[in-house]
Design a protein that fits this description.
The protein is of the alpha/beta class. The protein contains nine helices and 18 strands. It folds into three domains: 2-135, Translation factors (Elongation Factor Tu (Ef-tu), domain 3, Beta Barrel), CATH 2.40.30; 151-273, Nucleotide-binding domain of ferredoxin-NADP reductase (FNR) module (Rossmann fold); 292-369, Beta-grasp domain (Ubiquitin-like (UB roll)). The structure holds flavin-adenine dinucleotide and FE2/S2 (inorganic) cluster.
Length: 370
Amino acid sequence: MLDAVLARANTWMLEHIDPKWIDYVASNTMTDLNRRLNGFIWTYELQAQVVAVRDEAPGVKTFVMRPNQLWQGFEPGQHVELVLPIRDVQGLPVKRFYSVSPQPQGRFSITVKQTRQGRASRWLHERLQVGQRLPISQAQGRFCRRTDQARLLYLCAGSGITPCHSMVSAALAGPAAQRPDMQVIAQFREADDLIFKDDLAAWKQAGVKVDTLFSSGSPQGLPASRLDAEQLRRLCPDLARREVYLCGPEGFMHGMIQALQSLGVDPLRIHTERFTVSHLTPSTGFSVAGTEVRFKHIDACFTMTAADEGKTLLQAALDHGVNLERGCTQGMCGTCKLSVHDGEISGNVLGRAVYMCTSYPASRQIVLGP
Ligand SMILES: Cc1cc2nc3c(=O)[nH]c(=O)nc-3n(C[C@H](O)[C@H](O)[C@H](O)COP(=O)(O)OP(=O)(O)OC[C@H]3O[C@@H](n4cnc5c(N)ncnc54)[C@H](O)[C@@H]3O)c2cc1C
Ligand code: FES
């Protein structure tokens, strides 16, 4: 009862008073008593409190969350890391990333698909309720539309629609004059798996071209339809002029990158976000000594030596004094992601996207950039 009242009071306060003032007052009155009374406001820890939970589709839930005053906001397409009150096999708190979508009044939402035997998604679905609080990270990731990109194709499958949902929702909520030309192609297994059904309908109303495909058959009884190059060309005739934002299961993404490239889409126009990670080993037989690595965007360069053997590109760059942005260092969060402009790279690579923290050089000259 007290918790529910406190949760409502916190939400009201954070939505009516400038968070900077709340932070100022809280940090100047940080006593043990205040911390015990209200650890959501009297804290140095970024947390989010659940304000609503809704079923999006079978096995998919959306959690609307109110972050505390320490939240610095997010770019549509970014994600946060949630820290759950359960432990992994090593006894450490379970942490997972989820894409954030904009919500009114400074809130955000995450949409979680329950994976089979998934520890975190199962806990979120079965345990997380309105009023509960979780520690979160600040928003991170580079899967965000640049404002100078005027024509976009969002190509997604399953829960991979979540970061695209964030970008499309934010663009539609902004001024019409600044709205890009957006097209969405979303693939699901069957009609019941459709996520954001109402939003997809609203986007169509707002003039976005939206196509949904069902790989196990469509609601109208039409035959199953799995996206391939031919269908992509038919659904999006001006494909080569669009920036493509791609997110979905690993197999879907690899298939789509091949299809896009076979249709002449510039690899540097294909922007990817992956939810799982694979292939993390360096290519055998390549000796790194003498490899020159150049970073176009920061005008930096270094040459690898024998001492860099076995190091990831991120580690080697850091050891040579090139300070690169990074987060999880496990190939998940995408903070270190760059595009390869020239050369060969092995390890955690998807199309032209290189996850620097889990990738290795495979040619003598490498040029990287945004
Ligand atoms: C940048 C980023 C953003 C993400 N955004 C979202 C999001 O918006 N919504 C969302 O639902 N998930 C998202 N994810 C995936 C999420 O972080 C978890 O990996 C997912 O919820 C599964 O965690 P789990 O603990 O339930 O499963 P685990 O206990 O980690 O895994 C259980 C089983 O499921 C498999 N598995 C794990 N993850 C996935 C997956 N993503 N798809 C299919 N099988 C999987 C594992 O191989 C394992 O066999 C994102 C991941 C990243 C890296
Ligand atoms: S993917 Fe997180 S730092 Fe590389």
